[in-house]
Amino acid sequence: MIKFLIMKKKYTFTFIVTLILFVAGCGVVKTSPFGETSFIFIPTSQEVALGRQAAREIEKREKLCRDPVVNGYVAWVGNKIAAVCDRHDITYHYKVIESDELNAFALPGGWVYVYTGLLKKLRNEAELAFVLGHETGHIVGRHAIRRLQLVYGINFLLSLTLRGKDLGPAEQKIIEVLYTLVVSGYSRKEELEADAMGAYYAGKAGWNPVASIETIKLLDSLMKFKPSGVTELFMDHPTNKKRIENLNYWISTFRKEWLKNPFNEERYREKVLRRLGVGNLEGRKGDNHSGSRGAKGSRRAS
Fold first, then answer.
1. With contact defined as beta carbons under 8 Å apart, do 134 and 190 qualify?
2. CB-based contacts of 188: which residues, under 8 Å, 6+ apart?
3. Which of 33-47, 73-87, 172-186 has the highest mean pLDDT?
4. Which one of 112, 132, 207, 281 is separated from 176 by 20 to 30 angstroms, measured CA to CA?
5. Residue ranges per domain, the chain?
6. DSSP, res 63
């Protein structure tokens, strides 16, 4: 009995030490510029490996834009966002996919993609900065990694090798799940967080954060299906109305001088719209000026 008690104490001590070492190896990380933190079990090296492998698979199936001016410009705006964001332990990659889809998405570890279909609809540089800031916010918030570690568990994610061209069944499955997650969108809370971060990073990097609201209004005008009433209760994603309300709140807390930041319409037309063959640029110009006047006239856009 005495021997059993000694052994029990020994194994209990070993378990406690192991648990302490495991917890010490994990980290509470900052996941937004507004003070939020999260407990992340997956090391950055594994997150980057997962994102890199997913990027390889995506670039096999999608056609990347070949225009060096558009690519360089998007990367330049993205890198200015990355420079002011709250995560600097990874390298960011901002790329353009040639497709009519009105979308953009981010992969774990620093990869951000935006479709030419969306670029053609945006009207100025500040709106692009918000879109890239929103996607960068998903990376800063570790939204994909938090979801994957919750669904699949820590041991499974750590067991993935993610090396070489030939993926095993487990790796193929996780890449497909990740692709579906980042393209289809996140939860209401995560999308609203990314919106707030996108507006904040755009303002901090030198663009007018009100462009975030103008972007959501634009996307809303392009939607074929607009939920309301009971339908909204069963949606995973926030409605555009909720997104605008959320952005109005956060912008009201930002530094007042950010509302004097530019939208940079002309540079966007030159670097993106003309390069992508978008017509009727003069008609679009009026829309941008109306957005600028709204930003100057009030701290809250609606």
1. no
2. 235, 236, 237, 238, 242
3. 73-87
4. 132
5. 44-171+179-297
6. P
